Amino acid sequence: MADHEESSLFGLCTFVFVPSNDLTDTVINELSQSIVKYGGQVCPRKRNGSLPLATITHIVSNTIEFPQYDTSTTMMIPVVKSKWISASLAKGKQAQIRPYTPDPRMIFSDVTLSCADIPDSDKDAIIGATMAMGGMYSEHVTKLTTHICALSMGHPKVRMAIEKKHRCSIVLPHWFDDCFKLGKRIVEDPYLLPDPEILRVSPGRSIEPHESPYLDGAISARPDYMSPPSSPGERELKLTVFGEKKIMFSKDLEIRGRLRDILTGLVTKAGGQITDSPHECDWLVCRYRDTKEYIQASKLGKTVGNMSWLFYLIQHDTWSNPLHRLLHYPEPRNGIPGFKDMRISVSNYGGEARIYLENLIKCAGATFTKTMKADNTHLVTARDNSEKCEAARDWNIHMVNHLWIEESYAKCEMQTLTVSKYTHFPPRTNLSEIMGQTFLDEKKLQALYFPGGPEKPTVAPGRKRKALEMTDENFAVEVQSSSAAAGRPARKEFDIMRDMEVETADGAELPAQSNRRSVEFATPARGRHVRSGKENETPSTVPSSGRSAKDKALGRLSTLAPDIALYEKEKKRGMKDGHGPWGGKRAADLIEREHLNRRRTSSPTPGEDKEPKAEKRPAKKARPTLPEVDIRVILTGFKRWVNDTHKEDADRKKLRDMGIAVVQDGQPCDYLIAPQLVRTVKFLRNLSKGAVVLSSNWIEECLDTKQVPAPDNYILKDTENEKRFGLKLETSIQRAQKNKGQLLAGIPIYCTAGIKNGIESYQAIAEANSAIFMVYGPKSGSTIRPTKPEDDELGPEPVYLLSTSTPEEKKLWKRFEDMARKGNMEPRVVASDWLLDVVMKQEVSFDMKYLVAHFFV
């Protein structure tokens, strides 16, 4: 019996091997003997090196860098590492495929996890995320266990692993959390128990970076020279990578005659051919994505790379997919949209990593600066500790890691800075170790540069194109990694001026708000996430560091494991009659009985009384449908619901039943509802959009009479406050509708970081009117580009600084004024009331009374 099981372990399986540096011919021979011994077959590759996909069931490869990888995934042929065979032999049965995939995007593919003293809720989240990204879980610690997630060394699992000298890493759960946030696997060393570096070393101390293997031969799209072969002995070897391949050099390469002759000689000596036709070639080497040759070859499904990719093939004599390294693929001639005006500096990256980033930034179309000044727009950093990082915070410069520039280039569009993985910096990790792992998005490339699909593909390219269209493998893996890594947006919608608080009598105070670091406000308010919830309920703020790992991981895994959710749903249906899981024979027996009962009911036998019909199950009561929304309103300063959330819920439901929806700030609305003229954020932002303002009496009337009176009869009239603010509301609304949110377009407005009530409210109001809003702090430098005096026909343009008269802020005034005058602009240090009054009137004006020196006297 044992002999039969041994001989049938790989029965009906046919394998083919893909050699690589760590899968040598010697190893292949040993594994082939084991496969044959246990009932399998090993199929050789074809003469041209391609794989016989029609006759095999498994591909054994430790890399995905072989030409037929995409086609094999489309044909659902498993691609596994050589470890899969060893694991299957150790278990006595075929191991699972997923944990042994060579795809580097499955970051935990070689992780076998066991959890020790981790709370159950966090444990479930860590296990689920690990398995979704290619790992395995084992309840018990075995020789195959690679990682134990623990909080201390005292757990029995940990002690047993130490006693039996198992080769496994004992890591804190923080390591998994940081990997999930980034979507990449970082080095475990700083998280290893019993003395984890992240708990004993200050984050500010220097870190020795690990080199990324993915940058080898891929740091530039335009290499100046070709690196020598990996070892001196290979110089005399004949290349095999070009065997039976037709190569085309595009005209946009502009290579000199001598270099072209050398490359031609290498290709022909290796059994390849040079062609000038994109229809005949197998591989096209070009520089840009807009040439005729590039478009034709791409549409025909040819392999397209640049000179850096060609040099890599020659150096390593191994095929590589040019889509798997960003700078191995032809570059966009005019860069990526949105990067043209960007000035980007780099910090905490060194060596090849820094050169790679510099070249990638230039290929994206931005300007790379070695030193950072106040006119820089972004800082790409591997850690958030350096002099440049401190300056970025003071100058309100966006600070991101390299994943932002890599994924923007890979997806051919600038990525939003609110994605949390772009601003995540593990405390004792230099992120240069995970550089170069991002793949280009072929669907985006096709849509932008060669739309329409294949023209008249030949058999081989057509097969590849069909594979690319049928499979969504790239997208699925990316969703898994990015969903597990993506957190919440970088900032929540602010709630500075609560709507139940209205303007005080003196008109100068806003509700108090705690200050935050200015770097948090780098993203425009228009792109923020709007908080949903009660109109008068103050939101609770939970620090991200205090949230449990369960909340973080589950939020990121919501789209990764629908099969787990379905399993849980079916499991709850189990134990239906108390005798075990539902399904199998019990389900079949019930169906059989129901079928028999129906047959007896419909066709009674002669002489047999007809059985009474089973009572029909009462139909579910249809839910009442809500009427269509006719009117959308935003409320501010509404006092009816203050401290009474139950009444608010009931009243909202009544309004919705009448076709009136109370929407959140930032959403389109028909009317703004207020009891009087108030200077809340909601009022000023929506007034800037030209919203018609109704009295809150209209809402009161709707709720009291359950009728919807004509809104035009309830236009807000507040003569007292109109006189106080020096305006006519009707005129302000007309101006706002004409301004279309562009009242302050092009006007620079600075705000001191320590201004009373915080900067968020003023930023939101200013940006709602298209102002250029910036934070000004003690270390802020010049951010005004000087203009020639003769260009100012009407005199120097004004630049404003919102400030108070505290001693700390007074120290900033002179430097701000000097900065403005050097830029040929007129400095105006004003109280925040200037901004509020200008927006309320929807007219740009200025009076000396707003100057801080006069205002607070």
From TrEMBL:
Stretches of Basic and acidic residues bias are at 586-595, 607-617
| Ranges where the BRCT domain occurs | 5-102, 103-193, 339-411, 630-716
Q: Which SUPFAM superfamilies match?
A: BRCT domain (SSF52113)
Top-rank taxon, per record: Eukaryota
Entry GO CC: Cul8-RING ubiquitin ligase complex; nucleus
Q: Which InterPro entries match?
A: BRCT_dom, BRCT_dom_sf, CellCycle_DNARepair_Reg
Compositional bias per record (Polar residues), positions renumbered to this chain: 538-547
| UniProt-listed GO biological process terms | DNA double-strand break attachment to nuclear envelope; double-strand break repair
The UniProt annotation puts the region (Disordered) at: 505-556, 571-625
- PANTHER family from the xrefs? REGULATOR OF TY1 TRANSPOSITION PROTEIN 107 (PTHR47667:SF1)
- Please give the name of this protein: BRCT domain-containing protein
Which organism was this protein described from?
Xylaria hypoxylon
